[in-house]
Amino acid sequence: MFDRLFKKDPMKAPARQVYLALLEASRRPFLFGERGAPDTVDGRFDMIVLHAVLVFRRLRPLGDAGKHFNQLVFDILFDDMDAGLREMGTGDLSVGKRIKEMGEAFYGRATAYEPVLDDPDQDALALILERNLFASDGEAETITEAGPAAQRIAGYALAAERYLADQDGEAILRGEAPRFPSAA
């Protein structure tokens, strides 16, 4: 019984390596600024979510190992978000609420991305990105067209999906950094 409680998960270190790689990919300067996502806490969060969703989709077909690995990466991501909120001075009583909101945002975005990634539709993905990245509160539902920055990020995401499909999923499970396109 105690072995299970204290046994180290051999997938945790590779999951951390993959998380750091997707974090690094999500912070590349060409994804932000005038032609990309807003360089804000929310914009950076959205880029991390997009990259995580793409990696999770690549590993999902690997069965239980892929599912377990994805959960580890997700847990590491939210542990990192928790630490980041605390570093930014968010009070202990507010951190849990913020993490819950971020988790809901993650799942909401992942749910929205799935169908347009399953049947690749750049315009539909761009519209979702426009609503998430560029709309102000209450404005998202009224947006009917994506701007050039959202279109550019959507094109990048679809290219990233293709890049990941060509990579060895088992190697990623061993901690090999997933590769993403070098430009949007």
Textual characterization of the structure:
The protein is mostly helical and 184 residues long. The protein has one domain (10-173). It has helices at 2-6, 12-26, 41-59, 63-87, 92-118, 122-134, 148-165, 169-173. α5 (92-118) packs antiparallel against α6 and α6 (122-134) packs across α7.
Topology:
Elements: H1 2-6, H2 12-26, H3 41-59, H4 63-87, H5 92-118, H6 122-134, H7 148-165, H8 169-173
Helix pairs in contact: 2-3, 2-4, 3-4, 3-5, 3-7, 4-5, 5-6, 6-7
- Secondary-structure-based class equals mainly alpha
Q: H/E element string?
A: HHHHHHHH
Low-confidence parts lasting 5 or more residues at pLDDT below 50?
none
Radius of gyration: 17 Å
Q: Which shape, going by the Cα principal axes?
A: globular
Question: What's the number of domains?
Answer: 1
Termini Cα gap: 50 Å
In percent, how helical is the residue content? Answer: 55-70%
